[in-house]
Amino acid sequence: MTHHDDRPGTDGHARAAFIQEELTALSLAAKVRLIGLPVIAVWVTIENLFPNAFFYYGLLVALALTGWIPLAIRRRAPRAMWTRYAFPLLDLALIVFAVVYPNPLDDNTWPTAMRLRFDNENYLYLVIAMTAFSYSSRAVIVSGIGAVGFWTIGTLWIVSLPDHSLFVTDAAWETLPVDRQLAAFNDPYRVDLMALVRQGVIMLLITAVLATLVWRARLLVSREAEMERQRSNLSRYFSANMVEQLARSETDLSAVRGQDVAVLFVDIVGFSRMSEQAAPERIIDTLRQFHGRMERCVFAHGGTLDKYLGDGLMATFGTPAPGPRDATNALACGRAMLAACDDLNADRQDGGHAPLGIGVGVHFGPVVMGDIGGRQRLEFAVIGDTVNVASRLEALTRSLDTRLAVSGDMIQRVQAESGPDAVAGLSTAGRHRLPGRQSAVEVWIQPAHDCPPAPLPLS
Hints:
By secondary structure, the chain is of the alpha+beta class. It is 55% helix and 15% strand. The chain has 14 helices and 10 strands. The strands form 2 sheets. Strands 3, 4, 5, 6, 7, 8, 9 and 10 form an 8-stranded mixed beta sheet that branches. A two-stranded parallel ribbon has the order 1-2. A hairpin with a 4-residue loop joins β6 and β7. The N terminus and C terminus are likely disordered.
């Protein structure tokens, strides 16, 4: 089993998710500890007479602190990963000390070896289990090995005390008569080495099981973080509703297919001339403001941001999956872009800057969609005559003295989707022959000085 949880090369999104999950888990573990320790305190009170229990009360207070101190450290320094290992080991050392070391407040003179016969090693299993809250299989393994090590040291320390000794070997045990076996078994000064081995094996097996479960949990969290990262990337290109649809879809986007979509181009008029006169910083700032507002229009109307084109952008409606109002939404988006540009120009005039002029071209028709590119970089592309026509319509806005040019095919589709009123404010400008195309295209425009109507309702 390979452990990647502490490697610095782990994906940043997954690493950040684990850090947040670990903080939440540490907080939960600290609360569970505060609930469990009083229960243990009650049991200690039942098992120990006054004032013997005060020795264990001090231990419980120390264990409460070792639960909250690492949480406080991680909140201040989330990447202080050493706390994963140091504090569980400290817990184990405290528990082993409390189990094997004679209580200084207790007056009984029982042999120290008797302290190994009350199953107190069970407390070590709790510490190993609590380490799983770190979401680190490596921390669980360190805790398990630490538990075996501390328990072995404590047991051997007891063996080293005066009058204490180990049980005889299995081979020698079998040669003893039954009365001698019973006497050895009941000898309060003898320590059963095989019991120590059995306890160590069980601790390591439990550690292996928990480490595997934590590793699986990390794998699931990592996959969830990767899916969230992919959704975040998708949200930069698709509207929110499309991201959810894509996340649930079983269709491979790389499959080449054809379908009817609406294509929209928007561009700043005269931007090249403006760039010659403005400072580079001002140019980039203008583009950021413009792209940000245009992008919001695209996503607000259920469109897909296909690509930025310097001082413009291309958007599609009906990709990757077609809808019942793609053309209507595309036209509404184009009108919303005109309104957004007017708002931007109002802000620019307040700042003493020249207003921006834009042109919007929209067409509806068949396209081909699929992944293009090489092995190192792929791009979801929408290509075809429909894309070219939409681009040419945007360029045609200059000669037609309009900000919005729409094809006749687009008008027919909008009317079929939403009725004649959906194209109110647009008028035909006749048929025009576009560069690179043999047949003419009927063009509808919105007069340049008309105030754009409110965006149409969305589907």
